[in-house]
Amino acid sequence: MNKWLETVEPLVYESRIKVPYTWSVGEVGSRFLIELRDHKKIYGTRCPKCNIVYLPPRKTCSQCFFNLDEWVEVGPQGTLITYTLVHYESSMMPMKSPFAYGIILLDKANTGLVHLLDEVKSEEIKTGMRVEPVFKDERTGDIMDIRYFRPVR
Amino acid sequence: MERTAIIGIGMTKQERRKESETFSDMVFEAVTKALNDAEMTIKDIDNIVTGCNDFWDGRTISSMAVGDASGAWDKNISCVEGDGTFVALYGLTRILSGSYRATLITAHSKGSESISSLITNAMFDPIYTRPLGLDAITSSALQAKCYMDKYGITEEQCAMVSVKNHRNAKNNPYSQLPMDLSVKDVLNSRRLADPIKLLDASPITDGACAIILADEGMAKRFSKHPVWIRGVGFCADAYHLGDRDLAECKSLEKAAKTAYRMAGIENPFKEIDVAEIYDAFSYQELMWSEGLGFCEKGEGGKLVESGKTEMGGSMPINPSGGCLSAHAVIAAGLIRIAEAVLQVRGGAGKRQIPDVKTGLAHGINGPCGQSHCVWILGE
User: Fold this and answer.
1) Whether B121 and A90 lie within 8 Å, measured CB to CB
2) Rounded Cα distance, A119 and A100, in Å
């Protein structure tokens, strides 16, 4: 069979996998995203046993398996833990390259949030720099209600 | 642990685009080779575990789509959605349960058929992370920066891994990118996401692998050269990247300790003769070398500089060329196991390390090495 295939152009079938989808964000996600949308506030959940404030908020402490229901307002400012400057394009990326991602440890939170960095020259981005969120004017209750983080000036 | 052996291995050539073959064609080729290698027929196999990922395959329940190619008709078939080392782990537990005697393990993917950035973006949380467009390259870049900053690892040291592994691939007829490169070539290659450049990253690859696991009785009956499983360890870290200290690989340290304890290994650097580890990016070989205890924390860069991880060194890493030279996702970890089997048997051809008694194979699953699986194989 393989020899025959060498005499013709192998066919490919071109299509796509695309399925509209609706994810429930749950009680914790709803509270987090409603605070973002309605008050431009960022909330995490705190484990009283481990004293860890989780961002994004969780319902369960990953360390001790405790059910979390204590809410803590975090940030809005924070510290940049790590970053990368991106030089290629992909259709899921919300910005044209070059642009930067960072992991930000918001004040009072104990876990980092991955997000975009902007309003900063690439050579000025430094680990440890202080950053703050810039919110969208018209917010819809999703993580992109934070447009990006920028240096605190 | 009851004695279990790997008695057959088979793999396809790993290529950028296997346009003439479906993914089940590739699996059939690997399975046929593994059966021939074990001098078995499909009738001697009593159960099958496939490694498939529905997103990479572009269809759900992709495991069933390779059933025929795996000879699964009328047999017990199950699936692991993850790297081949974890697929083999499930197969091993099935034999250890006493319910099965000979398990066929397969793993495959065709990276060429989709858009890698979109597929790997889909591994992230759809609410909090996916809308950012993060993918395997950009998330690994965040980890690389974290790790390199903390321990003073240089881009040159990472580039040395790429140079070494692409050169090793020249000895491996199954690899995709055998190349003579200089450190400068790697440093000057196209920037993807700092500090990762094109030649620090593994390629898009099509490929499949199959291995056959057997209990002691079956192994002795069929195989002249069984390779015994002396230890296995696995461990998972948190899913959200921000929950983890990305400069560390605690789950690998734990997985390695478990595998070493089981195998009775006290000094891995001395007692392991060759290692096939999951270098999806050049920095990962350095980081995982530390996690595996081949050197102290933060000394991964010095380890590659020392030349000890070269073909002729005292701890050769990735004589196959590693994932940097061919990276069929899902299959890649199983290929690491198959390569370690060849090394222990003394059948690795031009890439053979002399006198291998103990080999290590390592795989990862999830973003930035969220979980790790470590295998110790021996004569």
Assistant:
1) yes
2) 10
Residue B321 C-beta-side C-alpha neighbours within 13 Å: 25
Q: Which of A85, A103, A113 sits opposite B194 (nearest CB)?
A: A85
pLDDT in tens, B2-60: 799 999 999 999 999 999 999 999 999 999 999 999 999 999 999 999 999 999 999 98
- Tell me the residue range of the domain where B208 lies: 4-113+204-222
* Any domain includes B208: yes
Pick from A9-18, A34-43, A66-75, B81-90: least confident: A9-18
Chain A residue with minimum CA distance to B57: A17
Among A23, A86, A114, beta carbon nearest to B242: A114
Residues of chain A contacting B, Cβ within 8 Å: 2, 5, 10, 12, 17, 21, 23, 25, 29, 54-56, 62, 81-88, 90-94, 101-103, 105, 111-116, 127, 142-144
Q: Is B21:B65 a contact under the CB 8 Å cutoff? A: no
| Contact yes or no for B242 and A144 at CB 8 A | no
Cβ <8 Å between B145 and A17: no
For residue B117, which phi and psi values (nearest 5 degrees)?
-60, -40
d(Cα B347, Cα B352) in Å, to the nearest integer? 7
- Let me know if residue B77 belongs to a domain: yes
- pLDDT band at residue B345, thresholds of 50, 70 and 90? very high
Residues in B whose CB is inside 8 Å of some CB of A read 19-20, 55, 58-59, 115, 117-118, 121, 125-135, 137-139, 141-146, 149, 190-196, 238, 240-243, 246
pTM > 0.90: yes or no: yes
pLDDT digits (tens, 9 = 90+) for A92-127: 999 999 999 999 999 999 999 999 999 999 999 999
Q: What mean pLDDT comes out for the span B179-183?
A: 98
In a domain, B46, yes or no: yes
Q: Are A98 and A87 in contact (CB under 8 A)?
A: yes
- C-alpha distance from B118 to closest chain A C-alpha (Å): 7
Q: What is the residue extent of each domain of chain A?
A: 23-151
Q: Is residue B286 part of a domain?
A: no
Give me the pLDDT at residue A27, please.
95
**So what's the pLDDT on residue B1?**
64
Is residue B228 within 8 A of residue B173, CB to CB? The reply is: no
Residue B101 one-letter amino acid: R
Burial class (CB in 10 A: 0-12, 13-18, 19+), B31: buried
Task: Report the complex ipTM.
Answer: 0.96
For residue A3, the model assigns a pLDDT of 85
CATH, residue B214: 3.40.47.10
Min distance B325 CA to chain A CA atoms (Å): 21
Q: Which residue has the tokens 């025959």?
A: A4
Is B302:B289 a contact under the CB 8 Å cutoff? no
**Closest CA in chain B for residue A57:** B128
